Amino acid sequence: PQPIYLKDYTPPAYLVDDVHLTFQLSPNTTRVISRVRFCKNPDAASAEFFLHGEDLRLMWAKIDGVSIAPDVTEKGLTCDVPANAFTWEAEVEIDPANNTALEGLYMSNGMYCTQCEAEGFRKITYFPDRPDVMAVYTVRIESDLPVLLSNGNPTVSGAGFAEWHDPWPKPSYLFALVAGDLIPTSDQFTTASGKDVALNIYARKGDETKCAYALDALKRSMTWDENVYGREYDLDIFNIVAVDDFNAGAMENKGLNIFNSAYVLASPETATDANFESIEAVIAHEYFHNWTGNRITCRDWFQLCLKEGLTVFRDQQFTGDMRSKAVKRIDDAVALRAYQFREDNGPLAHPVRPESFVEINNFYTATVYEKGAEVIGMLKRLVGDEKYAEALDLYFTRHDGDAATIEDWLAVFEDVTGRDMTQFKRWYTQAGTPRITVTDSFENGTYTLKLTQETRPTPGQPDKKPQVIPVAIGLLAPDGTEVVPTTMLELTEDAQSFTFEGLTEKPVPSILRDFSAPVIINHDQDTKTRAFLLAHDTDPFNRWEAGHALATEVVMRMVTDDVAPDPAFLDGLAAVMRDDNLDPAFRARIVGEMPRQDDIAQRLFEQGRTPDPMAIYRTFETLKVQIALHLQDITPRIYAAMQVPGSYSPAADAAGKRSLGNIALSLMSRLDGGKQAAQQYATADNMTQQLAALSALLKQGGGADQRADFFQQWRHEKLVMDKWFAVQVGTAAPEDAAATVKSLTKHPLFDMRNPNRFRAVLGAFSGNAAGFHMADGSGYNLLADWLIKLDPVNPQTAARMTTAFDSWKRYDANRQAHMVAALQRILKNPEISGDVAEMITRLLD
Ligand code: DPP
Ligand code: ZN
């Protein structure tokens, strides 16, 4: 397949006024009858009439009531059409029961549901399936199933049918339909202007007891969007449906969000604190799309970050407001570095707004989403909160109802601030993570900070230009007092100096406060300075960052020089651990958030060394024992102090305590053979405590009884079983990881057609770095075998998991050869999908 290019965009030849769809649902022979009103687009040069359509059986087609015989290919159809407005009608047959790709209309546990983003609507009926064709939809569903849902507001319904009308013009990717035997959990919300909205979360029987938290999160999201962005909901009803088989996290279909059940269903017994937090965030994310995505959508899929970057930014703000801003910023930075920086460093690097793609599904990436959100955060820092709010207001009024572009988005900032955004736009067009080198000097009371920036070449982009980088800094006096509070420096050149006058002694700089830009800072600070910042920085993010940098330095020295961990570092951890003035969640991030094995491998590689995943793994094992020994006098006290009495609450403060308590537990388990963990397992009344205990036991090579008990207790709960599968793979020693995967994939509850279950096993496997990278190549072969099996069933999920191979160039010749061979084997699969083929080709490039 040929790539398509942003530069080749042309407007649609025909526009659509309205769409009428009738669905006669049947597992293998669903009929879809469409009636669509088309008119020629005056802005388009071409008059060719083309409708996308894939895997459809065309029964008949008519134009203005007259039967026609279109030219049908695998990708769609063409036919002659009148010069003026006309009505297209067609009937197609589709097979939802055999749709294992989970794109278009498919079945999951006896229910029908749809996933149309990005290009799934063309598997439902013939249509111009592109986001710049927006229309009003009326939908009739015929089925005996009790719950029949589509977008918009319900109109008429009766025995065996229901009709829906969505008054808001929308692109086809926001179409949705659900039919099933589902139970609603209901509430209502009154908007700021007094409009009543019915809220429902639909789940399978038995799961209706696990919807309350998501419903509460939805109401808080609706209130927050009114208060912070002035955005109200715009239909009479808002429905959410939980589905077990789902490729992604969730989908923002207008008025009918469809969710992977993992991001909706929660009870204290079945969901962890982390699950509750991600449910809150994903509910908010999809709800916020109603304005940033639905009311204002994307002109084409190259503009995906227009809706995703902004909506991720908004959900991050929301979580920061609901919980701890500092902890949320740390968590977001950790995730960005783990996934997006890694992507930027390898063969899959691409700009936030890509310039070409073969399969758009391969571009729902950390770069588009998370770096896209960072770009918005930088804009906000650069223009200030007030101008940001003004720009957003202008964006919503100017583009409501539009399919917009990044140019449109940047224009509102230019118009509101008078600032030229040309250079800033490089954040959207240039791939790669900028690296900033910091040097400083002090003379006659003047402190000078020199910053230089450099971005390394990425595929297709050998030469990089300087970007606009907001670098928030603060200066501390050697006694720990802050002499210059947080100040925003704007780095726009390759190299720039910033001076601060009137200082009595050389200050200690705190650079990139609050992680003010998605960049890598190279700053040669010594251990003492880092320890000083860990103790004194007033910026919570940089306080954490100092601890993290120390930990990284310690691990690097352990790996390269085979030395014991620096006692100053261990003392620093102890000081944080016992500092009861610090929020437990924040302490947990400092003490528990070790650098990732993958990050150490990348650092070694950048130093010109060849990382040995097994040596890195062993270093961490040693370090953790050393930390456990060094802190052994305080961990039992912290553990006891962090136990939360009373009934479970998913709120941030209780969750933070459990998180620090469970870090103490994992340290204690290194020394007590799992005694405390076994006790916690036996008495746990919530999943956070139960799973942490099981994980600590398995990590010590024990826990056989608890593993069996957990299975017996939860075998009927799919989402809990996903945890049971994943924790075994995640805690397996490297030598045992592949064997664990092999035995779990033979388990009767393993089902590769369920993406959550597949990821629980094979996703956890690539996360077990040393196990995946076993020198004999067994890990690579095992993953390749499974991706080859999964590809014909579910290309999207298979393609996404090929990213496990994206760091192959870091390793020794032997591992490289094994990885390349595994990738080539996947590429030679005669049943290979376009999705996977594109990924492998990019990976091997
Ligand atoms: N548009 C979805 C989301 O990110 C992805 N399928 O919310
Ligand atoms: Zn989204």
From TrEMBL:
It comes from Cognatiyoonia koreensis. PANTHER family: PUROMYCIN-SENSITIVE AMINOPEPTIDASE. Its EC number is 3.4.11.2. Keywords: Aminopeptidase, Hydrolase, Metal-binding, Metalloprotease, Protease, Zinc. Its cofactor is Zn(2+). The lineage of its organism: Bacteria, Pseudomonadati, Pseudomonadota, Alphaproteobacteria, Rhodobacterales. GO terms for biological process: proteolysis. Residues 213-427 form the Peptidase M1 membrane alanine aminopeptidase domain. This is Aminopeptidase N. Residues 432-523 form the Peptidase M1 alanyl aminopeptidase Ig-like fold domain. Residues 529-844 form the Peptidase M1 alanyl aminopeptidase C-terminal domain. It catalyses: Release of an N-terminal amino acid, Xaa-|-Yaa- from a peptide, amide or arylamide. Xaa is preferably Ala, but may be most amino acids including Pro (slow action). When a terminal hydrophobic residue is followed by a prolyl residue, the two may be released as an intact Xaa-Pro dipeptide. GO terms for molecular function: alanyl aminopeptidase activity; metallopeptidase activity; zinc ion binding. It comes from the Bacteria. The keyword Protease applies.
